[in-house]
Design goal:
Blueprint lengths: L1 E4 L5 E3 L8 E4 L27 H15 L5 E3 L1 H4 L5 H17 L2 E5 L21 H6 L4 E4 L5 E4 L4 H8 L3 H4 L10 H8 L9 H4 L18 H13 L18 E2 L12 H4 L11 E5 L2 E6 L2 E2 L8 E9 L2 E11 L2 E5 L5 E3 L3 E2 L9 E5 L5 H6 L4 E3 L9 E7 L4 E2 L4 E3 L6 E9 L8 E9 L8 E8 L5 H11 L1 H9 L6 E4 L8 E8 L9 E8 L13 H6 L5 E5 L19 E5 L6
Parallel strand pairs: 3-4, 3-5, 5-6, 14-17, 18-26
Antiparallel strand pairs: 1-2, 1-4, 6-7, 8-14, 9-10, 10-17, 11-16, 12-13, 13-14, 13-15, 18-21, 19-22, 20-21, 22-23, 23-24, 24-25, 26-27, 28-29
InterPro entries: DUF8212, HET
Pfam family, one: HET
Length: 585
């Protein structure tokens, strides 16, 4: 630590146990107005820099420290850090909260504070990122106006400061430790503050969260992501996920980490009870996202196809929770980031046992391209597909399937391979079972990705023993193996409207004479238009040659002209209607 001699204005380095010192809190002036480390020469008083406004800050800090507090040393950030050295700058930023804590007194000079008391809450000092820790950390804080006249202590201004910043008097006076404050509340304190450099909005909060991390100027918004990752390593407080992006579209999907402290401006999470920080949910940071071991819940009202992750905090308005949407095998993203959920109750999902005390991952960040394709990589199966005599018996990988919403999710960042095992309602022999292979092929840049479906007799596919091995080996081996099977039907479709989910309905083929036993064909519905029609992969010529086939279509239960809505309400799900495929169809 480098300190200024309050008599001579000379700098001296202290490697450990520095002497008692005063410390300055201020907002930097325009470029060229401050005195930097390399300009602190021995004849400073006769140097041209003595005419700068920043020189007066140094002199007044030293004069008050010496004359009022009998201190021989002082610290001013402009000249006590050699910012030409990235190593020294990083060390100083990581140590700064402690330096303010250990100072005998802190002088906060507010250069836009005049004689009018109403100018105090409007001061620029309350809007800057770095001054947040300078407000909280010091044992003693004194305010000075533009003329360097003392205007009172932090204690004397306590109620006004609490009103301006939202920081309680117990925190300001040190009666309540920062680690006892929910993460979302501390983030709220910084939500309206700004910094000159984008990365500093993260670096200035390290002391508030007792975090140390490297300074990487140039990383931009990644700095705040790194800060949250470090916080997650240190605290089990789920309120870190309780942010709101008021600019987000209602149907938007995002990662679970906030992009900036401004996402914590909502006062709901800022007013969390202090005694409510005890957490029971286990979560950690991984290279697949944030890993949770917890139960997901269904909200008490319309979930819009989402599940709920409780944040283990409760306000007067209800339990705090966020919406999640499944996008792949045991993988979720944040849904409806423009709002949190405050409900009188949330209940554990009972119809989907894999969601109770399960391990799953939530993506930390979501690229715009990923957000766009989430809905195109989801297949919805009608809830009443067993009406044609087959029931869903098994799924691989199981984490990609939601029995609550009857959807298969392929993720968003790579190819996907899975299968659904169907068997007849009556009888479980191999002849009465089929495997529907679902392969989402990610194409090269410029090409459109597509779903590929293959229907395979159960007897021709030794599924359980072979699936994992071929799945792990990748797409080429999987496709090669699948081509060796007895494929009943292969269909490849390109992207549909991204805002409407695909639907798979099952069509039964009747036995007739020498025809083989009942089989399942796949009819893929893409809900681009407000009514449903059979897709053109059903060849009319084939229909005429096989008049004993039965065909069904999906329709809405109340209005067959209404587009399919993405909802968990079972009454709104489509159902199968038998079609008369006669001449002229």
């Amino acid at each position: 630590m480098r300190l200024i001699n309050t008599e001579t204005l000379e700098l001296k380095q202290f490697s450990a146990n520095p002497p008692p010192y005063a410390i300055l809190s201020h907002t930097w002036g325009p470029d060229g107005s401050e005195v930097l480390f390399e300009e602190m020469t021995h004849d400073l008083r006769s140097s041209p820099v003595a005419a700068r406004p920043g020189y007066r800050k140094i002199v007044m800090t030293c004069n008050i420290a010496r004359d009022v507090y009998d201190l021989s040393w002082a610290w001013v950030d402009t000249c006590c850090i050699d910012k030409r050295s990235s190593a020294e700058l990083s060390e100083a930023i990581n140590s700064m909260f402690r330096w303010y804590q250990e100072a005998i007194v802190c002088f906060a000079v507010i250069e836009d504070l005049d004689k009018d008391p109403n100018s105090f809450p409007k001061a620029r000092w309350f809007t800057r990122g770095w001054t947040l820790q300078e407000l909280i950390a010091p044992k003693k804080l004194m305010f000075y106006d533009k003329w360097w006249e003392c205007r009172g202590s932090r204690t004397e201004w306590g109620e006004e400061i609490e009103e301006i910043t939202g920081i309680s008097l117990d925190v300001l006076e040190g009666r309540l430790a920062l680690n006892d404050i929910p993460v979302a509340t501390r983030m709220h304190w910084a939500s309206s503050r700004v910094t000159t450099r984008e990365e500093d909005i993260a670096y200035c909060l390290m002391g508030i969260f007792d975090i140390n991390m490297a300074m990487l100027y140039g990383e931009g918004p990644k700095a705040f992501i790194r800060l949250q990752e470090e916080i997650i390593k240190q605290t089990p407080d789920l309120s870190i996920f309780g942010w709101i992006d008021s600019t987000a579209h209602e149907s938007m999907h995002t990662g679970i980490l906030a992009s900036s402290p401004s996402y914590f401006q909502d006062r709901t999470m800022a007013l969390l009870p202090i005694d409510d920080v005890s957490q029971t949910t286990e979560f950690s940071d991984t290279n697949r996202g944030i890993r949770f071991k917890s139960s997901l819940h269904e909200p008490p009202t319309d979930s819009l196809g989402c599940l709920v992750l409780p944040l283990d905090h409760q306000t007067r308005s209800g339990y705090c929770a966020i919406y999640l949407r499944r996008v792949g095998p045991n993988t979720y993203v944040r849904a409806h980031p423009s709002r949190n959920m405050l409900a009188s109750r949330v209940r554990a999902v009972k119809s989907d046992s894999e969601l109770r005390n399960n391990t799953f991952h939530v993506s930390k960040k979501l690229l715009p391209s990923h957000e766009h394709i989430i809905d195109t990589r989801r297949i919805h199966f009608p809830a009443n597909s067993d009406a044609i005599g087959y029931q869903l018996f098994g799924i691989e990988p199981p984490g990609a399937w939601s029995s609550m919403f009857n959807c298969l999710y392929a993720g968003y960042s790579s190819s996907f391979r899975g299968y659904l095992h169907f068997r007849k309602t009556e009888g479980n022999t191999n002849e009465n079972q089929v495997i529907l292979l679902c392969d989402y092929m990610k194409r090269h840049e410029g090409e459109t990705s597509a779903w590929v479906f293959k229907l395979v007799p159960y007897s021709a596919f030794d599924i359980k023993e072979r699936f994992a091995r071929y799945y792990l080996r990748g797409g080429g081996m999987w496709i090669k193996f699948a081509q060796k099977c007895s494929v009943a039907m292969m269909v490849s479709l390109r992207h549909s409207n991204a805002h409407r989910p695909r639907l798979i309905s099952l069509v039964r083929k009747k036995r007739s004479g020498m025809q083989p036993p009942d089989e399942i064909a796949v009819d893929l519905e893409i809900t681009i238009v407000p009514h449903f029609t059979l897709n053109n992969h059903v060849n009319p010529a084939t229909i005429k040659k096989n008049p004993d086939w039965e065909f069904y279509r999906l329709i809405e239960p109340e209005d067959d002209k209404k587009p399919l809505s993405d909802t968990s309400d079972s009454e709104a799900l489509p159902y199968l209607e038998k079609l008369n495929m006669g001449e002229g169809t």
